[in-house]
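Batch manifest, entry 17 of 40.
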Amino acid sequence: MTDAMRFADADDIAAFARVPIDERLAGRDLLAMLREQAMQDGNAPALLHLRDGVDVAASAAFSRRMLLEGVQAIVQALHRLGVKSGDVVASLLPNGPGAIAASLAAMAVGRLAPINLYLEDSQVGALLTTSGATVLMVPREVPEAIAGMLAALQTRQEGRTIETLVIDTSTLASAQQPAPEFAPRALSEHVALFHTGGTTGLPKFVPLTARNISAGAVISGFAYGYRAGERVLCAMPMFHVGGLFACSLFALAAGSEVVILGPLGYRGEGVVAALPNTISTLDLSVVVGPPTIMAQLAARPPERTRTRLRLFINGAAALPSVVGTRLSEATCVPVVEPWGLTEATLAVTCGPRDGRLRQGSVGLALPYCEVKAVRTDADGVAIGDCAADEIGVLTVRGPMVFDGYLGRATDQQPFFPEGWLDSGDLGRVDPDGFIWVTGRAKELIKRGGHGIDPSMIENALSAHPAVALAAAVGKPDAYAGELPVAYVELRPGRAPSAQELIDFAQARIPERAAVPKDVIVVPKLPITPIGKVHKQTLKLDITRRVTEQLVRALIGQAAELSISVEPHALYGLEVEVRVAPCFVAIVRDKLAELSFRSRVDPLEKDDPRMRAPH
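Output type: structure tokens
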């Protein structure tokens, strides 16, 4: 365990990268790194667990020796179930010391496949089948938030040959017999399997090798300056690479102590409200969280004078630049916005924590990582590299990049020639090497064939003092295809009008076509389990609003009407409208003018979906 190297500029990155990555790894997988540390000082702190995420006085501490013993106990249990290299061990585990030990154990003997706890039981069942899991790890104590899903899943899985292993996630078990030496995995072996996507189609599984993960640990350790004697906060879900790797295992590999805020992290009751006090009381050094958490900390910052707090790391989604500025000014602590993706263990870029940050940029390509923007044709084929500051598709190459989706044909893999990974993000690289992500290729608002970056709208609205969070999506339009609209969550006690927010954004958006046509204020924006705004939900909502407005203009306010808008695997979404038989033809013709897929059917008198407006 050594002090972290300085990271102030590109020269520091180059200096670190002069030592080849394979020399730094020396054939070690992540577990071997942790074992070496325990051999040097087994009593060094590894984990601090706040069982309910709030009560500091009731926390439990675990040393590095205790962590390895906990891993060994679960390795023994997996061996008893016959797990061997190549077998998939799925996990449905909330956060906790036992979840970390179980994850390491699964990677030590087979392939770990963490599954999103907040999916429906049918979706979880499909993922278990697709992954080929032979063992499923479940928690001994089940949080109420996921109890229904687990109960339904258990019923659904009756009769299947998948084995179940119960894990006490709140603590670490002891091995039932003396622990033999851990046999390190070959760095070329696949040891983890993460699912990604799947909101509008089939999920993809991302196999990661031991080398991908170990390289990610080395790269992240440099980026964030993880070191011994520090405490790193983990409140992101451990079924995601951000929660399990970026702020847990990668921090542990560098010698830091990881603080776990209860089984549900930021989603736990009272956790966010208590966060400023938690940061100060526990003397945290590094805090990792999504934009929603950064915005709340900017409004209620922790007392900087009482802690060794040195770094905020934004994760999961793009951070509006104004939020990062507010938080850093309120705390005198830098806020870095790294960029990465599951397919590259999230370790790709980061702002220089010891140097001058460029707010809005995701920083520089980290050691051993290459990033460039490429031009593509209408079919998505790369046709050349972009010039400096020219926006294109961001591509990535390096030792942390995976080798392809599970079970997908070559033409379904996300690679350009020469091993460059297609990130799916649009962005540019400036003359100084700083990388700027300008949006998701699939999230562009397409107005009359012109692509509008939603982040332009979101950043403008986020600068308003009443706005806590903003998200822009495309509103279906018969003429333009899509028009920009924004959904806004306000700060408590604030109540600006929609027109005031539109005028405010208009003064700050350089592109006239990008000014939102409407601002819709909602109590809470829909958030995914990892802290991203769930834009698919907003897209369904705005489509429903547009549909109802158009249909009401044709049939009147008093007529019965049924509308459903649902995700569709092939078409993104599908709108189903039911109206009285006399209106079917005119409604069908009207909706046919819009780009979304729609069905219009007669609504019979005894149809339970028939309703008049409230």
